[in-house]
Amino acid sequence: MPPATTDTTRERIIDAAEECFGRFGVAKTTVEDIAAAAGLSRATVYRSVTGGRDELILAVVLRDLGRFLDGLSERLRHEKAVPDAIVEGTMDAVAFVRDQPTVAQFLVPEAAGHMQAVVARAAEHVLNLCCDYVRPYFDLAQRERRLRPDIEVEGTVEFLFRIITSLIVMDRDRPADDTRRFLRTYVVPVIVGP
What we know:
By secondary structure, this protein is mostly helical.
């Protein structure tokens, strides 16, 4: 029996979901909206994406995040100074989320009530994906003794993930240079040491 859908169909559905999330908002987008935008039947969407709308939200977020992390890991390969990598990587991550409507809408109060369970499930996937991408940089930095010897790489990535999240959620509207100064003063010493 041939597969019910192809990878191409799934990508088409994810593209349509991303378009709808950007147009209607994540909380207000229905599977019917996504099916119409993809030019497919609702049944085809449900066969392709068995987890329904929640799976589509996660798929869009992970795809967008993967694209960002590809660029970030390339940058880290060329960055020798750990403090600069921490500061600029954090700044890039905050800017990325703020510029991505689908990702940013996870943080909008109107969406939170409708999507709290989705966000909770997605957070673990997002953290694992981030770890996979940046772990090699921090592993190398620790082997070269450019990180505090008493911290774990996994904990370092999680700490930065939490810092990035708080900077996004609690936007203090401070100038970028002030945010960089904040990161150098309070975040970098926790990872690199005094």
